[in-house]
Amino acid sequence: MSKFFSKWNYPTTVRFGPGRVGELPEVLAAAGIKRPLFVTDPGLARLPVVAKTLKLLDAAKITYGVFSEVKPNPVESNLTAGVAIFRKGRHDGVIAFGGGSALDLGKLIAFQSGQKRPVWDFEDIGDWWTRADADAIAPIIAVPTTAGTGSEVGRAAVITNDATHTKKVIFHPKMLPVTVIADPELTVGMPPFITAGTGMDALAHCLEAYCAPGYHPMADGIAVEGIRLVLENLPTAYANGKDIAARANMMAAAAMGATAFQKGLGAIHSLSHPIGALYDTHHGMTNAVFMPYVLAFNRDAIEGRIVRLAAYCGIRGGYDGFFKTILKLRKELKTPHALPGLIKGLDMDRKRKTLIAEMAIVDPTAGGNPVKLTKKAALGLLEAALAGEV
């Protein structure tokens, strides 16, 4: 089959700009949503930004419910509870409000609320998504408050299986929100650690998509510009969270990463996923830790592409110059260089290392790595990330 045989998809309607959260009632009306379930995380639920947003709904006389039982790495029990609230309240749509966890769980609640099969039957494997009753999927409005996952423009969501402690990707085209409100003012309150972690997540999405094999020049172009935006704006957003220009550019980069990674992801994510599932680490920060180790592992396969990327970003020194830029960025953002700096008291025996390697090579993102990720390779990368040797 020709390498030019591929399938491309692009995002939904995005209302982008400061203050646009004020358009939420109008967006709900356009989507035909009269009784939304507002899904957010427990931390955000206590902050003024949520109270202010809910006042918009009150002023518009919109009946709504609120669900905030969302873990940083959402699990099946969160989904089960959310679906129960959705059905009990007879809601007809979801407002997914928050970071990647809230966005993913909100999308899953809207998806699963009308299904009769277990959510695991719709994992992103082959055509499993066709098992779903598409007509029973509730419409979703996404309002991101971080700039990382880009879940607001994605057709999938990640959830952890409580029983097996593995992260699964659930996919359906109708999980794509009908409208996104991307208001950079909502990200101003992010603390530096979250700004760094979510920003590095956006960078990982763009970088792995760009390096993934396959023919998708439009995704490549979006990824390259997304990388430039992160490199030029993340340090500013980290140092001065009130810089709206930096916040807006990071919000754009996050959406670009999620648009680009339809081409594929790779070993950064396939190693990050089991670590997140087993140790409940911040996903973006875990990606940041693994990034240089995976870049080094993939060098022979990606050097030419990285040289072109470095030139576009104005970085001298080709691959080596780009690699040093990543190390410098991590240091500037106070990213742990090795896993023990991310996970306090980490003591990983051989059995646990083997389990993580076995989980990594079957993760759905592993197949997009430009160099085949074998069990031996995954173990080697894990050992390097534990020792901080790159």
Chain-wise SSE layout:
Blueprint: E1 13-16, H1 24-31, E2 36-39, H2 42-45, H3 48-59, E3 65-67, H4 76-88, E4 93-98, H5 100-112, E5 140-144, E6 156-161, E7 166-171, E8 179-182, H6 192-211, H7 217-239, H8 244-260, H9 267-279, H10 283-312, H11 318-332, H12 339-342, H13 350-362, H14 375-387
Parallel strand pairs: 1-8, 2-3, 2-4, 4-5, 5-8
Antiparallel strand pairs: 6-7
Helix pairs in contact: 4-5, 6-7, 6-8, 6-10, 7-8, 9-10, 9-13, 10-11, 10-14, 13-14
- Total of helices: 14
| CATH level 3 topology of the largest domain | Dehydroquinate synthase-like, alpha domain
Strand neighbour order, sheet with most strands: 1-8-5-4-2-3
How would you state the average pLDDT, rounded? 95
Q: How would you characterize the overall build of this protein?
A:
This protein is an alpha/beta fold. Helices cover 51% and strands 10% of the residues. It has two domains: 13-187, Rossmann fold; 192-387, Dehydroquinate synthase-like, alpha domain (Up-down Bundle). It has 14 helices and eight strands. A six-stranded parallel sheet has the order 1-8-5-4-2-3, sandwiched between helices. The chain has a two-stranded antiparallel ribbon with strand order 6-7. It is globular, with a radius of gyration of 20 Å. The model has no long low-confidence stretch (mean pLDDT 95).
